Amino acid sequence: MARQTHRLDVNGRSHEIHAEPNRTLLEVVRDELRLTGAKEGCGTGDCGACTLLVDGRVVTSCLMLWPEAEGREVRTIEGLADGGELHPLQRAFVEHGAVQCGFCIPGMILAGVATLERVPSATRAEIRDGIAGNLCRCTGYQKIVDAIESVAEAPA
To answer: Which CATH class is domain 4-78?
Structure first.
């Protein structure tokens, strides 16, 4: 298949990408941009390891063809930190011991960010709903939910 050229806006930077149009957003982000935080777990959109944010919404990037992201803002785990300063949710995951093997964590954090951007004072039930598409085999979710809850704003 012939390569195509599209512009992708990833983590606030514009990139001109030349790749086959049948490649996934996950493949292009990992292979062309060398942003390897998102992982391919299942390849069927069931595990959430490939989670990216596209226009602020959770996307299973193993199912999205990369040209579909043109003109949209893509955020990866690498784009959350501000310079050398971790995003508050990244810090909370460390402080609450919510990181085990690390395979699911980038997607889990991005799902948490999307949840809190949508519902800043999210309840534990809303947090669990927000991360429901992300599977973790190490932590049992308690510490993950605790970390996200610690960053949620107190209800007014």
So the answer is: alpha beta
